[in-house]
């Protein structure tokens, strides 16, 4: 059985009901200024940015790339021909009236 996709309307209703349940259970909603929740001590949290570690040396793989290029160049290139699609044409009788459709290749 396939589950029906939840629509935005359903999601909104579910969120509204969860908020109503929270408020009925004596929960309080604290208002915060826009962007304030992403700040730590009034500043952006820079601990996750990733510039704290020293630059790592990369492993050279030039010989691997050269081997791959050599394999590619040694194979003969055989272009595949595109198959012609059948064409639908109409057949007329002696008086110019259409009789039937025929597929021609």
Brief digest:
It is built from 2 helices and 4 strands.
Q: In terms of per-residue confidence, which ranges show pLDDT below 50 for 5 or more consecutive residues?
A: none
- What string gives the helices and strands in order? HEEHEE
Q: Roughly what is the average pLDDT, rounded to an integer? A: 83
Please indicate the count of domains.
1
The helix content is: 25-40%
Helix count equals: 2
Structural class per helix/strand content?
alpha+beta
- Please give the order of strands in the largest beta sheet: 1-2
Task: Name the assembly state.
Answer: single chain
| Count of distinct strands | 4
Percent range for β-strand residues: 15-25%
* Span between termini: 44 Å
What does the main sheet amount to? 2 strands, antiparallel
Radius of gyration: 34 Å
Shape: flat
Pfam family, one: SutA-RBD
Domain Transcriptional regulator SutA RNAP-binding: 6-39
InterPro entries: SutA_RBD (IPR049191)
Protein name: Transcriptional regulator SutA RNAP-binding domain-containing protein
